[in-house]
Design goal:
2,3-Dihydroxybiphenyl 1,2-Dioxygenase, domain 1; eight-stranded mixed β-sheet; single chain; 16 strands; 6 helices; binds zinc ion; alpha+beta
């Protein structure tokens, strides 16, 4: 990701956050099967009886992160308009075959490889809650990726590739992205409008025009929000001021420990966040031990024993997930 001199500080995707119904199944799917590193095990700062799990690359770098609030037994949501419906991860060119075999081994249904925008090859599948995931093969992602040694390094997931937003009135969301969020329209095909800050992997937002699409409903198996990265607190305030000047209702800056955030809704209803790249995942854990222990922000630390007592134990057993 690069900064563009003409923008006010949006760099591309920072993370996506989704809702899940089973903590252990969530860890097994994202760390076990997909091989993402669980880089942080903490709680929902606003509801500390629920985990907040972060998955990403070795450092948990912005642009590789997918996070979950797993509410045990949460009722399933419904995918639809006004939602982020698919998150796509980037894999190396030529790795689709490997992943089809691997998904098959673990009993996960997937679509046969499809192509869009000339040569973008991808497969689609869902996690145990029905959350929409794609793997997109490409040769322009130079990030290292990560796995626990159970997936050949030539095939590991490298980070986020793109997100897709379903919209009944796609032009409103398109205008919001281009006029306020520093994005440009870079491609269009069959009602899929592709936006990006600089056109690089990890910066892509696809807006799907579905004029008669049913409105989605939140619940497990749906995405909660998408966060865009910004360089630091100063650029975040610039972005915030720009949003306010366009009449957007934006929250004050919220301290999320690993980044600072502001939240707002785009006109189609999807919750957006702008998150600072610093301080990052190593602020309260050494890089080698990311995700090893339950981390709490200082203001919840005094309730640690209660919080721990309310959370179920989660295990990270990679032996079960070898090829
Ligand atoms: Zn977030």
């Amino acid at each position: 990701m690069t900064n563009n001199e003409n923008n006010t500080g949006i760099l591309g995707l920072h993370h996506v956050t989704a809702l899940a119904s089973d903590v252990q199944k969530n860890v097994d799917f994202y760390a076990g099967i997909l091989g993402l590193r669980m880089v942080k095990k903490t709680v929902n700062f606003d509801a500390p009886d629920v985990y907040h799990l972060y998955y990403g690359d070795r450092e948990g770098a912005p642009g590789t992160l997918m996070t979950f609030f797993p509410y045990p037994g949460m009722v399933k949501g419904r995918k639809g308009a006004g939602q982020l419906t698919v998150t796509s991860f980037s894999i190396p060119e030529g790795s689709i075959g490997y992943w089809m075999k691997r998904l098959d081994k673990f009993g996960i249904d997937f679509t046969k490889p499809q192509t869009r925008f000339d040569n973008e090859e991808f497969i689609y599948f869902e996690d145990n809650d029905g959350l929409g995931i794609e793997l997109v093969a490409n040769d322009s992602d130079f990030r290292d990726g990560y796995n626990y040694g159970h997936i050949p390094s030539a095939h590991t997931i490298k980070g986020l590739y793109s997100v897709a937003l379903n919209q009944q009135r796609h032009e409103r969301t398109a205008g919001f992205l281009t006029d306020i969020m520093d994005h440009k329209l870079i491609a269009e095909e069959n009602g899929r409008f592709r936006f990006s800050v600089d056109g690089e992997v990890g910066e892509i937002v696809d807006v799907l025009a579905l004029p008669s699409g049913t409105i989605g409903k939140g619940g497990s198996g749906t995405f909660h929000h998408v966060a865009f990265a910004t360089i630091n607190d100063d650029t975040q305030l610039e972005v915030r001021e720009k949003l306010v000047s366009h009449g957007v209702h934006v929250t004050p800056v919220v301290d999320r420990m690993y980044f600072r955030s502001v939240y707002f809704r785009e006109p189609g209803g999807v919750l957006f966040e702008v998150a600072t790249n610093p301080p990052g995942m190593s602020i309260d854990e050494s890089p080698n031990h990311l995700g090893a222990e339950l981390k709490l922000p200082p203001w919840h630390e005094k309730n640690r024993s209660d919080i721990e007592g309310n959370l179920e134990t989660v295990t990270l057993d990679m032996e079960k997930f070898r090829d």
